[in-house]
Amino acid sequence: MTKPRIHLLALGGTIATQPGDRGGMKHGLGADDLVRMVPGLDAIADVAAETVSRTGSSNLSLDDVYALAARIQAMADQRATDGVVVTQGTDTLEETAFLLDLLLDVDIPVVMTAAMRNPKLASADGPGNVLAAVRTAAEPWAKASAVGVLVAMLDHVHTALDVTKTETSRLDAFRSPATGPVATLLEDRVVPLMLPVRDWKQAVHHAVGAAAALRLAGASPVALLWLGLGEQGAVLKAVLNDPRHLGYGGIVVGAMGGGHVPEALVAPLVAHASRLPIVVASRAGGGPLLRQTYEGPGSEIALRAAGLIFAGRLPPLKARLLLDLLLRIEADRATIAAVFDSTG
Question: In 3D, which of 143, 132, 129, 109 has the Cα closest to residue 190?
Fold first, then answer.
């Protein structure tokens, strides 16, 4: 029986660290090192290993991920592989996975993984996570065209849309609070648990187009501003009142609850809603935003009526990535609102 061809792209991260000179861990291992860490991997697939970078994921840029997406898209278009596994650090794993999901239009599995514990520790999870990711990437049902980009961590498989890092250092740091995992690994099997709804992806594809999605030219960056108890909004007002909005092309507001902001911030937000895309996302991290429950100046009813764009069920980190993509392809306001509305 012919084994699937899996291409492993290594970007660095804890999974690829090694002992440093001062008692800590430093980046340095490459893709070949990761493959050698996993006994029996060659029994599952023919794995080709490629080192893309050797850095912490906090150092990755959006353009780095766009370039990675272009590399994966090219491999898929050329039928050079049956599946792709990407390893990186956990700090920005959920963001990379979601951005790849936005950008890619491929009919092969794309699975990301990482490690919470470094190779020096007795309970290092990197080898097991690589094994899980390769197993998942070898599954025909796991095609990105059907289920999207996946994240395999601690024998659970999550969708890029729903996964989030919920702990700083625990092994079970990655969860999908709203839905649970899409699959689980048991013995030598990858057991699907559900089929995710992908209507939002179709809306993105319709608005952006496959070719335009991989443009590398950056647009004006998107500001990410979180609101908290008693927040006076000085930074928000500085961005809004500056003639060039401090260089930002849009704003994602990490709002409260189902889409609420303090009444003191309503006036500046409303005054600029027609001139700058302002997206409201919930800082709660899970669940769709409200549409017609509460009244009052800072409520979702009032903010929607005033022209603010609501992020559906996207948390602020992922809403920022989608808004950045839409700004890169110069989508108009109506298109931006429609795409975000499709997420929930």
Answer: 132
Instruction: Collapse the DSSP code of 184 into the 3-class scheme (helix H, G, I; strand E, B; otherwise coil) and give the result.
Output: strand
Q: Using the Cα atoms of residue 78, residue 80, residue 84 and residue 87 in order, give the sign of their dihedral.
A: negative
CA atoms within 13 A on the CB side of 109: 26
In the chain, how long is the greatest CA-to-CA distance?
66
CA separation (Å) from 159 to 68, 94, 146, 179?
Answer: 19, 9, 11, 9
Buried b (16+ CB within 10 A) or exposed e, 108-142: bbbbbbbbbbbbeeeebbbbbbbbbbbbbbbbeeb
**44-83 pLDDT per residue, tens:** 999 999 999 999 999 999 999 999 999 999 999 999 999 9
The DSSP letter of residue 157 is E
* Distance (Å, whole) CA 280 – CA 283: 9
Spatial separation of the C-alpha atoms in residues 80 and 76, rounded to whole Å: 6
The pLDDT-based confidence of 206 (bands split at 50, 70, 90) is confident
Instruction: State mean pLDDT over 317-325.
Output: 96
Position 214 confidence tier, pLDDT thresholds 50, 70, 90: low
The tokens describing 106, both together, are 């491929």
Task: Write phi, then psi, for 100 (nearest 5 degrees).
Answer: -60, -40
pLDDT of residue 216: 54
Q: Which helix (H) or strand (E) holds 318?
A: helix 316-328
The two structure tokens encoding residue 305 = 């009526």
Q: How far is CA 157 from CA 113, 160, 177, 282, 334, in A?
A: 10, 10, 13, 24, 34
DSSP 256-273: BTTTB--GGGHHHHHHHT
